[in-house]
Amino acid sequence: MPTSPSSPPEVIPTIRVVAMPTDTNPAGDVFGGWLVSQMDLAAGTAAAFRAKGRCVTVAIDSFIFHEPVAVGDEVSIYTKITQTGHSSIIVHVETWRRARNTNIRKRVTQGKFTFVALDENRKPRVLPPEDGFDTITD
User: Is the link from the previous residue into 2 a cis peptide, with omega within 30 of 0?
Assistant: First the structure.
């Protein structure tokens, strides 16, 4: 990851969900904010797995909307840790949609999310050593 705009990653998505009518804006498209929140959940899952504990989002460094998501679309969110620091983790996230009753998949968003690992006092903590897994999707 990142992938080509024509085919999703060949790994299991971190999150898969169906877009529902309650997730739409007045125009009938899925809210961009709903997509951002789903991507943050997926990225946070990957970051917490790598950090072996609590992480918080500190930045969304880039974000691109390629096309809208419709009600009923299956939304698959893929994550890949691209960089780690002393206490930080950067996660590349891609969202793909599959229109209901088809096998056609299209990339709809991508972004870069930065997290910081926290201790029990909500202070930044050093990341533990890697144990061979940089993300739950590998």
Answer: yes
- Quote the Cα angle for 117-120-125, to 5°: 35
| Contact of 5 with 66, CB cutoff 8 Å | yes
List all residues 6 or more positions away from 45 whose beta carbon is below 8 Å from its beta carbon.
14, 15, 79, 136
d(CA 91, CA 81): 4
Q: How far is CA 65 from CA 22, 51, 69, 97, 109, in A?
A: 20, 28, 10, 12, 5
What is the Cα–Cα distance from 120 to 40, expressed in whole angstroms?
21
Token digits of residue 53: 């504990």
Distance CA 81, CA 11 (A): 14
pTM above 0.85, yes or no: yes
Q: Express each pLDDT in 69-107 by its tens digit.
A: 999 999 999 999 999 999 999 999 999 999 988 999 999
